[in-house]
Specification:
Blueprint lengths: L14 H12 L2 H13 L3 H29 L3 H12 L6 H33 L8 H12 L2 H20 L2 H28 L4 H9 L8 H13 L7 H6 L8 H29 L15 H5 L5 H34 L4 H22 L20 H28 L2 H8 L5 H25 L4
Length: 460
């Protein structure tokens, strides 16, 4: 194993610290906001089973590859890919994979911060009892009044970016590690409290049956592709975050075991979110397939009509904020690491610069929901014809940049890197498990990612 290369940014104090940090990166709005509603739209249990299979076949092998590249390079994704390309004797243009990951994370955070701002706003709205007794129209009006007011959105976006930069500026151990050691246990406790709340909702068995009883008549080819895509995106792959976190991983930590642990914890959070949300949905006579509005325009109705709804509604949105916060610090870390390495800045100055630029780009998303809501810059292209600036940023990053990044990580790790290099860094020997990983990353995983990619850009 290569041990002479040391990250100038420091490293995690232990394997557990990396697992918490990488899980924090992976656990975000996608687990708590997106997973329940796409499971609801695609039949529940059968979708969940397909999703778990995709985590095993796609998610874990690519995560192992990305962590491996990060630890071997011990730098920001850009410099890691430049160093490893030179070391392996392949084209220096592989550094563009690093640039693409850093750019993807930066763009995602620019709009992610705005959505996280909604969750921050809803903490106070829920806690004040604003949702109590509200009708569906009343809840919709609350949501519309928030998103249609650029000043409010800007204030919450600004607050969330400041929260993110304060953590990142403090460094790997004092900032990132301290934050995830506090936030991740708190996130799990909040989830378990909400599952306990759902247990007493009167529809817990119905929710569990929906989530865990497979009915394969309800799964479609489209549902399989959605499960495959979500398994890939939920682990924060292809955006530089896992690579830069891998660069801080101690040499004696098993990449395979840590990647599996992160994937299991990330999946556990998604399942717990479903166990907390679906019983509440069924107890209130709501539909589980109500789509993206499930969190901000549907669950508040339920919380507004349940005993203790104001308190537990507030806890739920605090949970959303924690999940978004742990993801946000990982999204900006690759850019901050590159600035420290290449621009001669210290962490505080690099964090402020990265934060201000991200905040400025985030204004495009803020205005997409109000004064620029009718602006569709690429309306001349069929698949973009009705997309606002926010819709474009979301589509381009999640559906194009991330799958391409994951595909190229797999190609580099399995086709460009020497077998001896990957075997050395993974420290698995060259037995069955290494052979299985290499087969998956060389053939199965790239094919699956290509299929997802072609689907999301409407080619298949």
């Amino acid at each position: 194993m290569t041990t002479e290369r040391v990250s100038i940014h420091g490293q995690w104090s232990s394997r557990l610290a990396f697992i918490l940090a990488a899980t924090g990166s992976a656990v975000g709005l996608g687990n708590i906001w997106k997973f329940p509603y796409i499971a609801g739209e695609n039949g529940g249990g059968a979708f969940v089973l397909v999703y778990l299979m995709c985590i095993a076949v796609i998610g874990i092998p690519i995560m192992m590859a990305e962590v491996m590249l990060g630890r071997r390079g011990r730098q920001s994704p850009i410099n890691t890919m430049r160093t490893l390309a030179s070391e392996e004797g392949v084209s220096r243009h592989w550094q563009w994979l690093g640039w693409a990951g850093v750019l993807a994370g930066f763009l995602i955070l620019s709009y992610y911060s705005v959505i996280a701002g909604w969750a921050l706003a809803y903490v106070f709205r829920a806690g004040s009892g604003l949702f109590t007794g509200q009708t569906a129209d009343g809840i919709q009006s609350i949501f519309t009044s928030l998103t249609s007011d650029p000043e409010r959105l800007l204030a919450w976006h600004t607050l969330f970016m400041v929260m993110t930069m304060v953590v990142v500026a403090r460094g790997v151990r004092s900032g990132l590690e301290t934050a995830v050691r506090l936030l991740m246990p708190a996130l799990f406790v909040l989830l378990l409290v909400l599952v306990g709340y759902a247990w007493n909702s009167g529809a817990f068995e119905q929710g569990i049956e929906f989530l865990f009883t497979p009915d394969f008549s309800k799964i479609t080819a489209d549902g399989v592709l959605i499960a495959m895509g979500h398994a890939f995106f939920t682990l924060s792959l292809g955006m530089g975050a896992i690579m830069v976190y891998g660069s801080y991983l101690p040499d004696n930590a098993s990449i395979a075991k840590t990647s599996i642990a992160v994937s299991l914890m990330d999946t556990l959070v998604a399942l717990l979110a479903g166990m907390a949300i679906f019983p509440i949905v069924f107890a209130n006579g709501l539909e589980p397939g109500l789509g993206a509005g499930l969190i901000f325009t549907t669950l508040p109705i339920a919380f507004g009509h349940m005993d203790g709804g104001a308190f537990f509604g507030m806890l739920f949105f605090i949970l959303l904020v924690f999940a978004a916060w742990t993801s946000a610090i990982s999204l900006i870390e690759p850019a901050v690491a590159w600035m420290v390495e290449n621009m001669g800045l210290n962490r505080i100055h690099a964090s402020v610069l990265a934060g201000v630029v991200t905040w400025l780009v985030g204004l495009l998303t803020v205005f997409s929901f109000n004064i620029w809501s009718d602006v569709t810059p690429l309306s001349g292209i069929p698949i973009f014809h009705d997309k606002t600036i926010f819709d474009l940023l979301d589509y381009l990053t999640a559906n194009i940049m991330l799958p391409l990044g994951g595909l190229l990580i797999a190609v580099f790790a399995a086709w460009q890197m020497r077998k001896s290099s990957s075997a050395d860094e993974l420290a698995m020997g060259e037995g069955f498990f290494y052979t299985l990983w290499r087969f998956l990353v060389r053939y199965i995983t790239p094919l699956a990612v290509v299929i997802v990619f072609l689907h999301v850009i409407d080619i298949i």
